From TrEMBL:
InterPro entries documented for this protein: Pilus_assmbl_Flp-typ_CpaB, RcpC_dom, SAF
Pfam families per the UniProt record, alphabetical: RcpC, SAF
Gene3D superfamilies with a match to the protein in the record: Antifreeze-like/N-acetylneuraminic acid synthase C-terminal domain
Domain SAF, first and last residues per copy: 36-100
Region (Disordered): 237-260
Name of protein: SAF domain-containing protein
Protein's organism: Croceicoccus mobilis
Amino acid sequence: MLVAVGLGLIAVVLANSYFSGVEKEQERLAAQQEVSRIVVATQPMDFGGAITTENVRMQNFPSTSVPAGAFFSVEELIQGGHVVLRPIVPGEPILADKLSGRAVLSAKLPDGMRAISFPVNATTQVSGFVRPADIVDIMMTRGEDENRRVEVIMENVQVLAVDQIASENATQPGVGGNVTVMVDQFDAQKLTLARQMGQLSLALRNVEHQEPGPGVAVTARDIGSGYNPRPRAAFVSAPSRGPSGPVMAGGGAPAPARAAGPRMTVIRGTDTTNYSVSGLGGR
């Protein structure tokens, strides 16, 4: 037993010496080759994950390309009690702006921005395909019957969480009861008022193409209205050999004045009357 214990102690000493020698050799090579040793991840880490000695290690990195916020000691990183704010992949440098002392959503908010939630369902959440880190437009539906209208009240809004899932790696569709988005203070006030005025819906958009839309409200009158203005012959006002007045382009009888906007024809018996209709349905 004494011999076995002695051999075990010798093995531990030799192992420590070996690993210490490897570490010193790496530091010597780093000094010779003008590289720095920084802390990198050894396994995937999600939002809220704690930094431990098991999921980080030291790795050589070109001194001229060390990213800002890198850590040069595992001990320094572990003592800070840091947790992950954004997903980190194996081999990625551990940077200060991806860590926080608290695994809370507020730590992800830039200065001046706010997180606000509102209820959604399968229909208003694009069947559950809206996930954290997506970019959406927010639409509001309000009014009754013929006065019902849909407006885009915000564009290019980043989604922070769906229900209580805030991980950017959560890409599987899932219907949540609430969605949390990141907006400034003014838009947070607008959303608070809008969700009391009508129903809010999300429109998922391409994160690489964020051009603003036309910003036109759609009303119930735009659905199946059947309005399709027929092209009319253009007319010009030009001197002619006969009586003065507007003439058809290319000659012919005088053309009537061109009506602006949609028109409605009402037939009462044998009498026919034409009315101009404004965008809101008034005369």
